[in-house]
Design goal:
Distance between the termini: 21 Å
Strand content: 15-25%
Shape: elongated
Helix content: 40-55%
Structural class: alpha+beta
Number of helices: 8
Number of domains: 2
Length: 175
Amino acid sequence: MENLMHSKVYVGTYAKYNNGSIKGDWIELNNFSSIEEFYEFCSELHSDETDPEFMFQDWENIPSELISESSLSENIFSIIEKVSHLDYKTLEAFAAWISIGNHDIESDDIDSLFESFEDDYQGYYNSEEDFAYQIIDECYDLSDFVKSYFDYESFARDLFMSDYTYENGHVFRNS
């Protein structure tokens, strides 16, 4: 996901492939703002065919949920646009959140997807236990004496059984 701004796809056609040719070209997706614009360019690239059936023979830096040999998700251009405005840490967190698999980046509304991410993201922590320490400090008024006896490890385990997910240092609320 971090390299999505540098995503590209090798576009050929099934007709050329079936006739023994893999002629096509690498196309950088960040040069387009919509699927229509992309397909128009592909049509110009393969203008020697009347109605080219595009074949995506290879790709780089594109999540597998967004591409297959015969299709490219319409969402990819909106996602590229959105992630281009994110700083590295936020982009890393978004990639971790997507990898959890609770959301469908291929078909979910992009604005809703990013709103859900912002709602779910709790921050970066060195461990689940560090997150538990913060929850106790922010939500409970425990004396230092009681805190010294509190089992943070067990509390963290309980938090992450159902309410939260820890992925590559990032904590997300399960929604």
